[in-house]
Amino acid sequence: MSRKHLLVGNWKMNLGPHQAREFASSLAAEISALKRTDVWVCPPMVSLAAASEALLSSPVLVGAQNVHWAKTGAFTGETSPLFLKDLDVTFSLTGHSERRTYFGETSETVAMRTETALAEGLKVIVCVGETETERANGTTDQVLGDQLAPVFARLSAALAPQVVIAYEPVWAIGTGKVASIQDIAATHKFIQQLWNAQGYDHQPTILYGGSVNPQNFAEILALKEVSGALVGGASIKLDQWLELIRIAEATAE
Ligand code: PGA
């Protein structure tokens, strides 16, 4: 049986609790059943409860945009995986490029966050990607390998199925520029090879992210190396998000 597509919406710092409830309610009203797509959304931390409540009877899962490596303690402004579980949240992103760029997260701290979240029973979407300069310099593979190495070093074969990798070229995020189909295929294949070299006994789930929209999504999703997408801007516009879900449901894997 072929695997389902995975479509993840990253709301970033948009939709506070009231707006999130409204958006999530509208989404819930539009989606009753999904056949070939898992749909997950990541509201801001303060909107998690409102979005979860509104989506309770829908197939859409709610997750966090980040999670801390400690379970409790003196880490002002951070969120424990235990608190996420308390809200029945089932997954979190780690290592989004905005966290790495604006908040000083390193591949090591991203790996620590990933490790604790997995140990506490959450699924994790680890985000990786190269900058425009790194791609131009031909160092994309090196950069992705360096970002993933500390994650793999802490990831057992038993927990590997709980991990999704999102490949998001930094220069494609929120810019309207999308990586070429050839580059997406080649880079996903490279990540697949890195994964397989760890000896995990299943194929990885690898999402593409970066300016995905209803115009470009079908072509990207048609690549056999692509399991789905991590979407920012188009995930908080209801008509576009519903169209992306429709495309994922209609596209054969
Ligand atoms: P974008 O964001 O779809 O707005 O480019 C993607 C992301 O940051 O995950």
Core attributes:
single chain, 253 residues, alpha/beta, TIM Barrel, eight-stranded parallel sheet, 10 helices, binds 2-phosphoglycolic acid
Describe what you observe in this structure.
With 253 residues, the protein is of the alpha/beta class. The protein has a single domain (5-251), classed as Aldolase class I (TIM Barrel), CATH 3.20.20.70. Helix content is 39%, strand content 15%. The chain has 10 helices and 8 strands. It has helices at 17-30, 48-54, 81-86, 97-102, 107-119, 132-136, 140-153, 181-196, 217-221, 238-250; strands at residues 5-10, 37-42, 61-62, 91-94, 123-128, 163-167, 205-209, 228-231. Strands 3-2-1-8-7-6-5-4 form an 8-stranded parallel β-sheet. Helix 2 links the parallel strand 2 (37-42) and strand 3 (61-62). The longest helix is centred in the C-terminal third of the chain and has 16 residues, at 181-196. 2-phosphoglycolic acid is lined by residues 10, 168, 173-174, 209-212, 230-234.
In short:
By secondary structure, the protein is an alpha/beta fold.
Say which molecules are bound, naming each kind only once.
2-phosphoglycolic acid
Oligomer: single chain
Distance between the termini: 10 Å
CATH classification class: Alpha Beta
Helix share of residues? 25-40%
In CATH, the architecture is Alpha-Beta Barrel
Mean pLDDT level = 96
Strand order of the largest sheet: 3-2-1-8-7-6-5-4
Largest sheet: 8 strands, parallel
In terms of DSSP E residues, the strand content is 15-25%
Return the structural class.
alpha/beta
Radius of gyration over C-alpha positions, nearest whole angstrom: 17 Å
- Tally the structural domains: 1
CATH H-level superfamily title: Aldolase class I
Order of helix and strand elements from N to C terminus: EHEHEHEHHEHHEHEHEH
CATH topology-level fold name = TIM Barrel
Low-confidence stretches: none
Shape: globular
